Amino acid sequence: MNSLVKTLAAAALIAVSTFAMAAEGPGSKSAKVNVTLSTADFALEHYVAVTTEGESAGVEQLFAEDFSQKVQASNAQNHSRSALIKSLKKQKGEKLNCKVTTDIIEESVDYMVAKVTLKFEDFTKTDLVTLLREGNDWKVSSSVNAYK
C-alpha cells in the first residue's frame, strides 16, 4: 500500500511538471528574439516601442556597444548601455501614459538623428537619438534627454 501511494504521488508530480513545461512553450525561457533593424526607420520605431511601450524583444541588439545616454536635468546623469538595458528589461510590459511624436532631424545612408518627444500630462521629455548603421543593421548609438 505504501509503495502504491509513492507511485501515485510520483505519477502526479510528473504529470504536473509536464503540463507546466507544456504551458510555457518550447524554448520560451531562453529563446532570444531577433528584431529586424535593417533600416533606420525600423530601428527608431523599435526604440520608441522599447522605451515607451515596454517592449523587450531584441533590446540587446538595438543598442550599439558604445551606447551612452545623457540626461540633462538639475542633476545631470550619464547611463551606460548595460545600465539602460537592465532598466528597460525591468520595465517589460509597462506602457507610458504619454503622446509620442518623432521627427527626423537629419538622415543619410549611414546615420540618422531623430527627436522623440514624449508629452505627459505635467511635463515633456525630449529625447535626441542618434542611430548608426553597423553592417546590415541600424543601432542606437546615443541618446540625450531633456525635460520641460
Chain-wise SSE layout:
Layout: H1 2-24, H2 40-52, H3 59-62, E1 63-72, E2 77-80, H4 81-90, E3 99-107, E4 111-119, E5 124-134, E6 137-147
Parallel strand pairs: 1-6
Antiparallel strand pairs: 1-2, 3-4, 4-5, 5-6
Textual characterization of the structure:
- This protein is α+β, with helices and mostly antiparallel strands.
- Helices cover 34% and strands 36% of the residues.
- It has four helices and six strands.
- A six-stranded mixed β-sheet has the order 2-1-6-5-4-3.
- Mean pLDDT is 79; it is low at 4-13 and 15-31.
Give the ordered list of helices and strands. HHHEEHEEEE
Oligomer: single chain
Classification by helices and strands: alpha+beta
In order across it, which strands form the biggest sheet?
Answer: 2-1-6-5-4-3
The total count of helices amounts to 4
